[in-house]
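User: We ran a pulldown and think these components assemble together. Before we commit to crystallization trials, I'd like a predicted model of the whole complex to look at. Sequences follow.
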Amino acid sequence: MINDIRVGALIAYCSVKRGNKKTLIFIVFVLSLIFLNLVFLPSMIGGLSGLFTGFMRDYPYGDIVIEPTGDNTYINNADLVLKKVRAVEGVRAATKRLDAGASINHKQKVVGATITGLLPTEEYDISRYPYIINEGDFLGELSRDEIIIGAMIAGTGFGAEIYDNLGEVRPGALVDVTYSNGVKRTYKVKGIMTGSIEVVDLNALVNYKEIEDVYGLEGKEATSIVVRVNKEGTEAQIQDKIREAGVNEEIFTWADKSEALIKQAMQSMGAIDIMSKIVSLIVGAALVLIIIYINVLNRKKEIGILKAVGITPRSIVLSYAFLSTFYVCLGISAGLILYLSLMLYFQMNPVTFYETMEISPTIDPMLLIQSIATMLTLSVIAGILPAWSVSKESILKAIWGR
Amino acid sequence: MIIVKDLKRYYGTGDMTVKALKGVSFEINKGEFVAIMGASGSGKTTLLRILALLDDATDGEYTIRGLEVSSLPEAERSYYRLTQVGYVFQDYALINEMSAAENVYILSMMEGKSKKESYTTALEALAKVGLEGKHDRIPDELSGGEKQRVAIARAIAKKPDILFADEPCANLDTVNSKQVLDVFKELNEKYGQTIVMVTHELWHTDYVHRVITFQDGSILSDEKKTKGQ
Ligand SMILES: Nc1ncnc2c1ncn2[C@@H]1O[C@H](COP(=O)(O)OP(=O)(O)O)[C@@H](O)[C@H]1O
Ligand SMILES: [Mg+2]
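Assistant: Here's a predicted model for the assembly, 631 residues in total across the polymer chains.
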């Protein structure tokens, strides 16, 4: 066996050293494209889901979100929970929110929306809501008869063609809101927010006190408590610490949430991703196989000669395994260079999606390792199979064709 | 040394059967230099391939030094080809991506010799065929005669029991042919190498001890030549 390996290595070495360089370059080029095909789309989709989780953190969930347990509508004693949470080391800020369902009405037009009641001054440290008011102003601490409306409901932003909207509502306009419990209020539009994503732009914001008032709450309830941490990556630890501090509600990190969300909202994306991976793999496998098979067929006579002079078929098969591994290693390296340059390009020039969403791809090391392992496995199989089948042929047939 | 008894080789089946060898018998002794002659299609190549274990006989017996080689399993035949039999092809059959030395020493490596030992053996064999200093050239950088001599070096480096050569000079001009035949003659005279060579040039028989002539798959004549002729 050791002789087989030595001889196989010698054959492979010679054929790389003195073989046709143009063929080598071509093979490596095609292999690099196969690799790129394997990793590029998933990276773009990764970027998309990264963007998505970014939105989730910037708006509804923060770094950590505390929600009521079980069937409860509210976190009871929200202020006590907030106090405990704020005392936890590593927590930068926390605030409570009250979500309510409502319909908003303006000049005969009605749309349904979630209205979030929040404490305007606290939100500056928690979310990006205060920073995305592109017409008018954000709520003030004392705002009571004022509302912030998402651009998609207002009908001023992107998506106006897709979703029901109020028909170009501007700051200063009056809207009537009917809450899920039937209570009606009239608000003056204070600002329009544009977050470039439905969870924000199909939403509306009012003062926390408003929702309390409407639902007759007593200053202790919240539908969620949103927490921001000091240091990225400490979410899970802080989640534990909050639990230890005696908070018995449901506590989620943004990662927990986005996992669930991506499972839901991006299920079709995920399916596309998996399908594209499978297709790339099949196409890649076929191409690697074809390239190496052609290569082997071109050397059929050589294989016959080697056998005729007493080289074992095993050495010959091994030499092709070495060769194709070598090709694929070069192909992967070239593919990685291509991939990283593309990543760099797209990170500097993100793809625009939904007119305003900018997607820059993410590099997932796991995905890269997976793809490299797959390509290497494929290459060994693709190298061995054709060489093995040719080396089984009779010497006469291999050398003289009959 | 070699005993061939009633060797037959048929190609194809039914009406299409070609009887390339119709049952030939002969013996070759150690140290002999034998030429096999005969018209094209008379079965010379077929015979040589069977003797060199590149092909199977349809029927008959074939022993080398008392060993019935015709019935060996493929792995042993492969080892036999590697260690006991040298074969020189008409069209050299060198590996184009290997240098002269590599073409030769790959076989020693296959036998399990160290790289250094293999290399020395290869250089020795190349020297025997008059190719000192050309061991680094690849086939494309060698003349036809030189290529054929590399092929001979490859075949004799293992010091085989028998060296077979199938029209080794068919692609060579007279000057190159003479060089190759001189190499054979020297190998035979100096090292006692047994050689069986197929040829159709009459003047080649000046180099050999014995001429077996084939016709239509059978032996037409088998003549000893007096030495020094
Ligand atoms: N692989 C083969 N299949 C069918 N017929 C063959 C094959 N090889 C040789 N023959 C036939 O066998 C006969 C002998 O061929 P060969 O041994 O090559 O003759 P020579 O070498 O004396 O010219 C020829 O008629 C040839 O056509
Ligand atoms: Mg012939």
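The longest strand of chain B covers residues 18-28. That may be worth checking against your pulldown data before setting up trials.

User: Thanks, that helps.
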